[in-house]
Amino acid sequence: MEKSDERVKVVLLATGSFNPITVMHLRLFEMARDYLHGTGKYKVVKGIISPVSDGYKKKGLVEGSHRLAMAQLATETSDWIEVDPWECTKKEWTETVLVLRHYQQQLKCTDNGEIQKKAGCRKGQKRKRNDVCQDIPDYNCPESEVPTQVKFLCGADLLESFGDWNLWKPEHVEEIVSSFGLVCESRKGSDAHKFVYKSDVLWKHRNNIYLVEEWITHDISATKIRRALRRGMSVQYLVPDPVLDYIKKHDLYNEESEKKNSVFILEPLLKYSKNPSSNDRPIATSSLLEF
Fold first, then answer.
1. pLDDT digits over 5-22, tens only?
2. Which is nearest to 31 in space by CA: 6, 5, 12, 7?
3. Angstrom distances, CA of residue 275 to CA of 167, 171, 265, 269
4. Which residues of the chain fall below pLDDT 50?
5. What are the start-end ranges of the E strands in the chain?
6. Which residues partner with 153 through β-bridges?
7. Rounded Cα gap, residues 253 and 256, in angstroms
8. Of 212, 184, 241, which is closest to residue 22 (Cα–Cα)?
């Protein structure tokens, strides 16, 4: 008799600009999966890339249609990482916690496929749902399995941005780390362990924060990719080949594209800051959604 897999199923969700997507974005998914599998507690069943919408108004952010296309090209050879357009195709910027809630609800609202089936429901059985996809207890459905969990995948620079209340609502940070959890990659120049220690909220939920060490060090970022492209320098092997072909075909990153949104205030600043201005853009935002 085949032994059942008692590991908790996990979907890794990464939000961000992906402007453009790089090989390190893809590597982060692989590292996170290896780390979680190494704990013996989790089984990563899917990775989701969710590019931010144009409504984020980040300086140099090219159109969402291009960023979606590049991300889809980059993941063509992956058998577990996919790109979802739900967030990117919205006109307005969607707060990260709302994106996480959306995908968690999607997992609860469908019973088609191993990844999306109801926790505790055997094949062919369903939990009852009302019209807004809210669960209604069905006592014929045994609750023997833990629901698939969505975990937020990010880099240490984004983790450290949690300390800036001009960029995040405190209650959103609390919900992200308590209800979903983080898988965070350490990056050059960042000390994620120290930041977790210094933050009362993160320390409180430290058991739900997984810090992944990258032993094969790198210093690749979308910002540096765009800078090289503007200067006519090669970025071969720093982005997937199909992505580079797409960038060249559409001439995406140049002096003109980098000026895009330069007259706008970053949407979180506009929404959260008491006195936002074009000069209030903190350094953290340059990497906040570079992921």
1. 889 999 999 999 999 999
2. 12
3. 13, 20, 11, 9
4. 111-112, 115-132, 134-144, 278-289
5. 8-16, 42-51, 81-83, 128-129, 135-136, 149-155, 182-185, 209-212
6. 183
7. 8
8. 241
- Helix H, strand E, coil C: the string for 45-104 is EEEEEEECCHHHCCCCCCCHHHHHHHHHHHCCCCCCEEECCCCCCCCCCCCHHHHHHHHH
Bond from prior residue into 170 cis (ω within 30 degrees of 0) = no
- C-alpha closest to that of 65 among 76, 51, 47, 82: 51
Give residue-wise pLDDT tens across range 248-279: 999 999 999 999 999 999 999 988 876 555 44
Predicted confidence at residue 188, as pLDDT, reads 67
So what's the pLDDT on residue 273?
Answer: 78
Residue 257's φ and ψ, nearest 5 degrees, are -65, -30
The Cα–Cα gap between 84 and 143 comes to 29
